[in-house]
Amino acid sequence: MNERNGAASAEPTAFALELPSDLRQIDTAVSYLVSRCREYHFAGSRLTLNFRVGIAEALANAMIYGNGRDPDKRVRVEVELDPQRVSVVVRDEGAGFDPADVPDPTLPEHLEATGGRGLFLIRSLMDAVDFNECGNCVRLTLFREKQQHPLAS
C-alpha cells in the first residue's frame, strides 16, 4: 500500500492509496482509512459499519469485477477528508459497467441471484454514491453526522 500526500490535522486533507488487486489488502486499507477518519472525530456506527462496509465492498468489487483479480492491475483510492465528511474515489483498471444494469437483490425474482448485494450495501450505507460515465470509478461520500432530508411535499 502506497500513500501519497497525507498529513492529519483539522484542516481538510487529500491523499491517495494504490492497492494491488489482492483481496487480502482490503482489511489493512480499510483499517487505515478508518484510523484517518478518527483523526477527524468520525466515530460510532457511521464509521465502524457504514464506512467500513461500504469501502470494503467498493474495493472488493474493483478487485474482483473491475480488475478481474489480475494481480498486475491496481486499484486507486483517492480520499478527501474534512471534519464534516469523507469522500473516497475507488478506481479500477477495468472496462467498467453500467450500475443501472445491476438488479435490485431485494426483489423476489433476484433473491437467489449471486450478484448485486455489494452495490446494494454501498448505496444503503453511504450518503452519496456516484459512478463515472464508463463505470470503472465510484465516489462514495459519508458525512460525519447523518444528514436530515426534509420530507417532500
Task: List the topology elements.
Blueprint: E1 2-4, E2 13-20, H1 26-38, H2 44-66, E3 74-81, E4 85-91, H3 117-125, E5 128-131, E6 137-143
Antiparallel strand pairs: 1-2, 2-3, 3-4, 4-6, 5-6
Helix pairs in contact: 1-2, 2-3
Give an overview in words:
The protein is an alpha+beta fold and 153 residues long. It has one domain (12-143): 2-Layer Sandwich (Heat Shock Protein 90). Helix content is 29%, strand content 24%. The protein is built from three helices and six strands, in the order ββααββαββ. The chain has a six-stranded antiparallel β-sheet, covered by helices on one side. α2 (44-66) runs antiparallel to α3. The chain is globular, with a radius of gyration of 16 Å. The model is unreliable at 2-8 (pLDDT under 50).
Short description:
This protein is α+β, with helices and mostly antiparallel strands and about 150 residues long. The chain has helices at about 25-40, 45-65, 115-125; strands at about 1-5, 15-20, 75-80, 85-90, 130, 135-145.
